[in-house]
Amino acid sequence: MGSNDTPSIVPLEQFKKTQLLNDLIAKFNESYGVPPTFIVCVPGRVNLIGEHIDYCGYSVLPMALEQHILIACKKSDDFMINLVNLNPKYPPYKGNISSLSFNRNDEVQWHNYVLCGIKGIVESSTEKTLHGMNLAIAGNVLPNSGLSSSSALVCAAALSTAYANKINFSKQHLASLCAKSERYIGTEGGGMDQAIAFLANKGCAKHISFKPLTAEDVKLPDGLAILVAHSFAELNKAASDHFNQRVAECRLASLVIAKQSSLQNWKELTVLADVQKELKISLADAILKTKEILVKEVYLKDEICEILGLKIEDLNNAYLPPNIWNSKYFKLNQRATHVFEEALRVSQFQDICKHGGSPKGLGHLMNLSHDSLRDLYECSHPQLDKLVSAARESGALGARLTGAGWGGCMVALTTEEHGDTLISSLKEKFYSSLNTGEMKNEPFVFRSLPGNGAVILQ
Ligand code: NG1
Ligand code: MG
């Protein structure tokens, strides 16, 4: 398959007829009185390694899950967008495609993710106005779990809009425009989730690089299994400032390293990978430089302004997301060290997979990644740490948090033979003492094979 191709169209009869799909089609019929003309299917993902580094310009290594978001769609004759969700927790929505607006101060609701995807296509299209659509939505990706249900929803909405309006964008283009438009939610993420959603191929994880966006197949050594398990600690990332605080810390670390290294263009160097490139140094040397330049445990905003020679308002306007304007403290050394070391681990992980190296080595890198996210990046959660420890004690080759963190899921690497034993052991060691409440019927611990990217069913 070429790298610039458009998402595949699969005959609906060839797609596995699941209960979810049948229920979705029934919901569409019941809501709009006609059947949908097509359905899009976009997977969630689990990131194997490379956490919190996509927005710093470094490559990541996720794989698509079999769990997905489905959107059933039919173009309408007017400009109205109608949304219904199979899950009654998410109320219906109605809006006009020519007046999509986002207010950063409003609480983020589920339909905002759909509107982000639609807006991405509206902004990239040369057509003045696009058609409205009737949409019905369903999914089985656990929400707020670091499995990227949010991006799957954004990407599915964008793909529905493009296909309904006969716009042929490549997978790469769709991934990039969705990464950009998901930022209307208010979190300034990188492009990993949208890239894997469109570029995944069944059977392989992907080494994803940015600028330009490329995705290279990574085949895990034979005989290994990937296990995903929920910690039952949940964070609604869009409703907290943690994520953007980390983005801000990485940008400020870049600027300070660049300025203190006397780079003339330091004002444009807000991305750690760009600073490394500009300094023409290896990742190992970038780690040393961080230690040399970012000597303080914590930086006050005033101190950063003084180093950079900027007024607070200028720093805010040029470099910080609005929800971070009131932050006073920034940990620059710890965040930059995590980013450079994690970038190094991604390339070591890929090397082991390429050259048939030891699965133990892969597990070790995953363990180091988690420890760094917990200690340097401070984006774990005590319950997630407990789950990771339980996996390691139960014989996993490696285990780490996956996705943004502060709760959500862990990904563990084990052998095929040991997979079921690991699940039973986690149930006994970790889940038995938890109240699994609302989630008790959801698959909160499961094995997954690398799944496919987005497709259109018709
Ligand atoms: P999740 O946890 O899926 O929301 C977020 C970002 C990614 C990446 C990871 C951390 C978005 C849409 N996604 O993922 O780009 O930065 O955190 O590695 O913001
Ligand atoms: Mg997300």
TrEMBL record:
GO molecular function: ATP binding; galactokinase activity
GO cellular component, one term: cytosol
Span of domain GHMP kinase C-terminal: 357-431
Domain Galactokinase N-terminal: 26-75
InterPro entries listed in its UniProt record: Galactokinase, Galactokinase_CS, GalKase_N, GHMP_kinase_C_dom, GHMP_kinase_C_sf, GHMP_kinase_N_dom, GHMP_knse_ATP-bd_CS, Mevalonate/galactokinase
One GO term of the biological process aspect: galactose metabolic process
Keywords, sorted A to Z: ATP-binding, Kinase, Nucleotide-binding, Transferase
Presence of the UniProt keyword Cell division in the record: no
Pfam families tied to this protein: GalKase_gal_bdg, GHMP_kinases_C, GHMP_kinases_N
Domain of life, source organism: Eukaryota
Family under the similarity heading: Belongs to the GHMP kinase family. GalK subfamily.
Designated name of the protein: N-acetylgalactosamine kinase
Protein source organism: Frankliniella fusca
